[in-house]
Amino acid sequence: MTLPEITKKYIGNKTLEAFASELGIQVSAAAVHHWKEGNRTPEYDTLREVINSPTATDEAKAWAAECMEVRYGVRVGAAEPNLNQEIERRR
């Protein structure tokens, strides 16, 4: 599955603004649009921030984890403890 396909799957019927707010970090609807259309990909640090955000929804964390695995080959659980350490170890 491609990153745009993953993003579209998790956006579903939500607005771009709603999806962006669920990520728990500062992300614009325009950035989400670019990810959805495949014009840009979410940065590694952006995905890591979403996974570690205390305010991101579980679905947003699952999106970020799936994107992380597809784009960077890093497999993480959305609620895995010490996630930052594991990601850094795999870099």
Describe this structure in words.
- The protein is mainly α and 91 residues long.
- It has one domain.
- It contains six helices and no strands.
- The protein has helices spanning 3-11, 16-22, 29-37, 44-52, 58-72, 83-90.
- The longest helix has 15 residues, at 58-72.
- The chain is globular and about 35 Å long.
- The protein starts with a helix and ends with a helix.
- The mean pLDDT is 89.
Low-confidence stretches are none
Distance between the termini: 22 Å
Shape call = globular
Give the helix tally: 6
Briefly note the structural class of the backbone.
mainly alpha
Helix content: 55-70%
Q: Provide the gyration radius in Å.
A: 12 Å
Strand/helix succession: HHHHHH
Q: How many individual β-strands?
A: 0
Report strand %: under 5%
* Main beta-sheet annotation: none
Mean of residue pLDDT? 89
Structurally, the number of domains stands at 1
Write a compact overview of the structure shown:
The protein has one domain (3-90). The protein is built from 6 helices and no strands. It is mainly α and 91 residues long.
